[in-house]
Amino acid sequence: MPENKCPVRDLIGQLETAIDSGRLSNPRDRRRTEDVLRLLRDVAWGGADKQHLPAMESLAAKLAQEGKTESSTQVGKLIGSALMQHREVFASHIETHNCATGDCVKLAPAPCQMTCPAGLDIPTYVTLIGLGRDAEAVEVIRQDCPFPWVCGLVCTRPCEFMCVRARIDTPISIKTLKGFAAERAMSRGSYRNPPKAPDKNKKVCVIGAGPGGMSAAYYLALKGYGVRVIEAQSVAGGMLLLGIPRYRLPREVIDREVAMLKDLGVEFQFNTRFGRDINLQQLKAEGFAAFFFAIGAHKSFKLGVPGESEFPQVIEAIDFLRHVALGDRQVPGKHVVVIGGGNVAIDAARTCLRLGCESVTLAYRRTRSEMPADAEEIEQAEEEGIRFKFLVVPTEVAGSDSCVKGLRCLQAELVSKPGQDRKYPVPIESSDFTIDTDVIICAIGQKVDAGCMESLEGLEWTRRQTINVHMATMETDMQGVFAAGDAVTGPATVIEAIGGGKRAAQSIDRYLTGIPQPTLPPVPTRRGRIDHLEVSAADKMTLQRPKMALLNVDRRRTTFQQVELGYPENRVREEARRCLRCDICLRCGKCVEVCRDKMGLNALQMGYFDFDHPVATDFRVTADRCILCGACATNCPTGAMQMEDRGGERVLALCGTLLNRQKLLDCEECGTVLGPAQYLDFVQKRTKGVARIAEDRRLCDACARKSSAAFGVDDAPVKKV
Amino acid sequence: MSKYYIYQDTKRCIGCFSCESHCKTKNNLPIGPRLTQIIPVGPKRVNNLPRMAYVFMPCFHCQDPWCVAACPTGAMQKRPKDGIVFVDDKLCVGCKACITACPWGTPQWNPATGKAVKCDFCMDRVDQGLEPACVTKCITKCLHFGTPSAKSRTTRERHARLVADFD
């Protein structure tokens, strides 16, 4: 079977064929097969619970053992083997209500949710925020991510890059909406921890109080484990606090969300470096049954140029940011060069500016479009006056008397290598020049500081010097030891660490309760299937992604105040209404096809359905051309397109976007609804050629039959009166 | 008109709805659609006695069917060889134009499939030389499947018997 085919859907197809073929001649066997099919359909439609799998298995076993005919036993074995072979996929359908392949159309997940490394149910919480139910939105988010506020401020938002709305105009501002909901819920006191499971009397030790470690701690604590988090620094937060400057992520935000963990009973042990202050044997002796390593990647890569280690003014960005975060706010120098093009480089540069450096230059070896840093960050840095030098390859740190004087560089050009997407900078000969500077900050990447884990024998490391784990379960090669976060992925994002921590927590729970570990990575869970927000077609098209209000540049250059000021409430609620609800509408295009090719109306212009060739989308044209026949809604496999009669009107809506609404006409005899005038005219126009009898009354079909019944009663008793 | 005709001897019909239920069984229909319908008329006082009539109303398979004209997808068709009007399931998209167009209210909505269904005289049975389900299972034998001329013959014979009243 091809990888991308859903085994649930596949088995349904096979059973349907078996039943339709009439092979199952024994009535009891046929009924049993139909029962399995019914249960399978529940699975494929998201209506199954824990009993479904065992029920199907027992039916399959009965069919295989007691089947009266050859074909019944065959079908029984077929079901049995499919259930055994793909048990994980069946179970994941039942648990997550998502079908990763999208073959089970009702369970086709939204692209944003599938892209999110932590699998947040974005359409659900965005809709909740649109409804003003911020606390519920936070509740939904925290089922997959314990730090909605942090993520709402600093997430790299892969979801927004996959957002289908971007094919129409701009993606939904998912990050900011999340941040707003979390802040609002926190300030109103409705940001609460979910109830804890009963105490399991088992202890888990988490090493590293970063986003990965704390996420695992949160989910383990919720499951009823005793959790202790060991942290080398004196504060919780890890890279959130030490790597991300305060003007992007205020410390209070981290503190408030970490406090929620402490509230759950998670114990923190600060100033304790694993491998130095404490080791595995000691922890095991204390009764910890499982260990989770999320030690991050705090060691910088070296530039590898002459002079680098001779001067104290050549500093590493991550150390610099850590010192600043921990309160050491000295100006590093007057003129600073930051080497690198990632978020850390930008953070270091902007921090320098805030500390009072006169000029800050960012030197990157590729061009602006290749910079891995967030586009908005780059823009904001530029506004603040950071200078950018592109295509720069440092060759030597120049200086004298242990004082840096400048950075010698070569100009480079981008050359594409065969078979690789990314272009490589190649230095141009004798193009060398010097950037005058007092301080050089290197931000060319980090690696895992493996020193503290040397004592762990049997732990496998990858080629990239990260901990080797099974990505589905975050298990390392040591029994009872799990790992996630930057220590596994290399320097990555907050949300990846959170996703890893969550996955690890689930695996640790399975490990400690003796449940076998899955082999497939988990599918994100659908946390709800809530009703659409109703929006008019005009609003859906014209609402714009709000522009983020920023602190004025003078403040930004002088203080560490938060730069992004967030959206006002009304813009947040409006922004949520732009969501296309891809968790319900799988954009299969059946509605468009039926309307255009079958009905010949072409009233639906959903250009964004076509991923490869997006054409213009306009929800507003529907009202002009649509006759409200309902063929689109009838052929919609997921119920995204809906037509209903209400308040004397027939209304057509796609995921809450009101495409068309028309007044309804009634049957003149009994008052039954006939349909809107456009629709009746459409039919009348088509029948004009044959409908010779002028039908001047609008009748429903029941009344039409009744009125014409009398014609047939030529010899009926009634007539004889 | 189609080549065929279902003649209902209303005198014999007791309104048992066997025809309707067997129609639904044969066509595997859910709650809702009723392809043929018995329309009760009455009661009326005839010679001081209450009398009911039950009128059997399948599709008339019109000469120029409005439903066929109304159908935008070509799903509703008239079979050239015998004039039976039927829906091609694969082509129907469920716009209900046929249901709206028909003056007799014949095409029905099948909520299970999201398509229109209508009486096709059980054309698969007819092609096998059988009678439609409703006729086959009519318990009073008041339904007769045949050609339109057969009906006039029955009517004439009955009239002749009335005229020649031996009592």
Chart the SSEs and their pairings.
The complex is a heterodimer of chains A (721) and B (167).
Chain A: H1 7-20, H2 27-44, H3 52-66, H4 70-85, H5 87-96, H6 111-115, H7 122-130, H8 134-142, H9 148-154, H10 158-162, H11 174-188, E1 203-207, H12 211-222, E2 226-230, H13 239-242, H14 251-263, E3 267-269, H15 280-285, E4 288-293, E5 299-300, E6 314-316, H16 317-325, E7 335-339, H17 343-355, E8 359-363, H18 375-384, E9 387-389, E10 392-400, E11 403-416, E12 423-427, E13 433-436, E14 439-442, E15 446-447, E16 481-483, H19 486-489, H20 494-513, E17 535-536, H21 537-542, H22 553-558, H23 569-576, H24 590-598, E18 605-606, E19 617-618, H25 621-625, H26 631-635, E20 641-646, E21 649-654, E22 657-666, E23 673-676, H27 677-687, H28 701-712
Parallel strand pairs in A: 1-2, 1-4, 2-3, 4-16, 6-14, 7-8, 7-14, 8-9, 17-22
Antiparallel strand pairs in A: 5-15, 10-11, 11-12, 11-13, 18-19, 20-21, 21-22, 22-23
Chain B: E1 5-8, H1 18-27, E2 37-46, E3 49-57, H2 66-70, E4 76-78, E5 85-87, H3 97-101, E6 108-110, E7 115-117, H4 123-127, H5 133-136, E8 143-146, H6 148-163
Antiparallel strand pairs in B: 1-8, 2-3, 4-5, 6-7
Question: Strand count, sense and closure of the main sheet of chain B?
Answer: 2 strands, antiparallel
Helical stretch tally of chain A:
28
- Characterize the largest beta sheet of chain A: strand count, sense, and whether it forms a barrel: 5 strands, parallel
Shape of chain B: globular
Number of DSSP E strands of chain B: 8
Report the structural category of chain B.
alpha+beta
